[in-house]
Amino acid sequence: MEKLAEEGVSLSLSGKVALITGGSRGIGAAAVRMFRQAGARVFFNYRSAQEQALSLAAECGGTELCQCAQQELASPADGATLVRSAVQAFGRLDCLVVNHGVWPPYDVPISSMSDDQWRSTLAINLDSTFGLVRAAVAQMQQQTPITGARGHIVLVASTAAQRGEAFHVDYAASKGALVSLTKSLSSELAGDGIYCNCIAPGWVDTEMSAAALMHPETSKKVLATIPLGRVARPEEIAGPILFLCTPLAGFISGEIFNVNGGAVLVG
Questions:
Q1: Coil, strand or helix: which one is 199?
Q2: What residues act catalytically?
Q3: Inter-CA distances, 87 with 38, 92, 128, 138, 143, Å
């Protein structure tokens, strides 16, 4: 028994390749680091944070182990392009983590929400996801698995996907679609050995949420809805994402994994 305790539990992704979208900051950057620590080669995109992205790629091993590319994600074609770039860099794709997204920070009533805001949010959060998943699945289906599953797909949604979010209907609708997409993909692909699951974070301490969390009144309201009494650290979301791509999650598919400090139960 003592020998087993010394060996610990492995979360190894050795030999595998992961594509993580929105990897330069926040949850994405934490996931890039964790997937590298687990032994995967990682490709990630950034939109504008070039300096941070290049620094992170260098920190995580450089061109042989971790690469990044500037890539907008606002259409199916954008998603397909990014998958091609990842495969060109590392020769295969075993894990897709769809982490990028936009949350317009200002409250907008449905009666005055513009067509442009609606279309922009859905284009970034949903349309590009379709392109990413379509291209990734095609790649996974044609390659030989290294070990275990043929592939893993993890979509990052939100508690807003399940309970809605007033004055942010564009965001909630786009993330709700990811929940349905997860269930549909699992039903379609689990038999092929491609696992699809969804992480539903609540409030996380990232640049995207910084303005709201720094506002005294907004922050007070946010914390009042979280039983644990605080927002998450990016690493606390990245950890469950990594877990869902390992053999320890080998009997989990189509799951909506709530990681929100209990907030989804009280909102």
A1: strand
A2: 158, 171, 175
A3: 19, 5, 17, 12, 11
Please report which confidence band the pLDDT of residue 8 belongs to, taking 50, 70 and 90 as the band edges: confident
pLDDT tens for 170-184 read 999 999 999 999 999
Residue type, 115: D
Write the DSSP assignment of 97-129 as a string of letters: EE-------S---GGG--HHHHHHHHIIIIIHH
Q: 19 CB contacts (<8 Å, ≥6 apart)?
A: 42, 43, 44, 82, 83, 86, 93, 95, 96, 97, 132, 136
Amino acid occupying residue 77? A
Tell me the per-residue pLDDT of 41-68, one tens digit each, with 9 for 90 and over. Answer: 999 999 999 999 999 999 999 999 999 9
Domains of the chain: 13-205+233-260 (3.40.50.720)
Alpha-carbon gap, residue 29 to 26, rounded angstroms: 5
Closest to 94 measured CA to CA, from 193, 199, 23, 238:
193
Structure confidence by residue, pLDDT tens digits, 228-256:
777 788 999 999 999 999 999 999 999 99
Read off φ and ψ for residue 77, nearest 5 degrees: -65, -40
Q: How far is CA 188 from CA 150, 184, 247, in A?
A: 14, 6, 20
Contact (Cβ atoms closer than 8 angstroms) between residue 204 and residue 27: yes
SS in 3 state form for 216-243? HHHHHHHHHCCCCCCCECHHHHHHHHHH
Paired tokens of 202: 């609540």
Side chain identity at residue 162, one-letter code = Q
Q: How far is 83 from 171, CA to CA, in rounded Å?
A: 24
